[in-house]
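Weekly structure sync, notes
Attendees: PL (lead), two postdocs, one rotation student
Agenda item 3: pending single-chain targets
PL asked that the sequence for the first pending target be pasted directly into the notes so everyone works from the same version. It is reproduced below exactly as submitted, 366 residues in total.
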Amino acid sequence: MGTMEDVSIIPQPVGDTKKVDLTMNLVERKSAKGITAGGGISSGITNGPLAGLIGSLAIYHKNLFGRNQKLNLSLERGQIDSIYRINYTDPWIEGDDKRTSRSIMVQNSRAPGTLVHGNQPDHSSLTIGRVTAGIEYSRPFRPKWNGTCGLFFQRVGARDDKGKPITRDFYSSPLTASGNTHDDMLLAKLETVYTGSGDPGSSMLAFNVDQGLPVSPEWLVFNRVNARALKGLAVGPFRLLLSLSGGHVVGKFPPHEAFAIGGSNSVRGYEDGAVGSGRSYAVGCGEISFPLKGPVEGVVFADYGTDLGSGSSVPGDPAGARLKPGSGYGAGVGIRVASPLGPLRLEYAFNDNGVGRFHFALGLRN
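Predicted structure, written out during the meeting:
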């Protein structure tokens, strides 16, 4: 947990019996606070001489009040992306016998709007700014099952490359649901996750719901459901991995909240969001991985995604304005290298139009 300097277990025999007492010695760290800085490369959509570069800075305390509570102030900054975040976490609320954790966060983020609204034909950029504040609780409720619920306020709006608030993109598609320069919403969130043993034959299931609450007449009211299932199967040195994800949105929502299809974590062989953006979606993937040498493994994969014909029901039909197909598939090969931060993925895929594309990402495919 980062709060202990040393942990040791000493076995001691109990009389003449065959039982053993285990004594655990814990040495707490003298200081659990510090500052970290770093940099990296993002696989997101960026352009220019510094495309993809990210810098980060964090100030943290891992043992607040001597109760293993954590306070973190962090900054991540890229060419377009930025995230400023203050996060407080109590990993086990005192007096609770259900192992419930509590997290409070305030965040200001900016991200490219290209997933849904694409690269502007006039080469201008469009960013989505989001201010979020909320609280969430999480706890295990059965072996391998974990549940999370929370309440979050969000204020979201779009800006052009000069930082000026805008309400429509190049194609005159709306960028907010309210017609104002920003949308306000209060979201109740519920998530349930099943995690298997982690071995090659394990499974994973995640289901989450976001519900906009009608606190004010101008605040957005919508319901968004998203689910993902994954199943692994080991056959000799090979591992087969099948995954399926899907979702649907009902109610009044801004176009940038639509489900974007295509990219490194969706349908490879396409740019991020290039297949479509819809009120509904389904994406399936099949992979076969095999060891090569040491931490390196090879992979062969095929992906398919569709907006289920819902692209035109997104306000302004941003996918239709950009002639996105609404469905597509890709197939390819790649290598993965195990690292402390997760697998490094380098993949090459062809889409159903015969166009090839490299994908680089860190971590397992979402």
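Discussion points:
- The radius of gyration is 23 Å.
- The domain at 92-362 is CATH 2.40.160.50 (Porin).
Action: rotation student to compare against the earlier draft before next sync.
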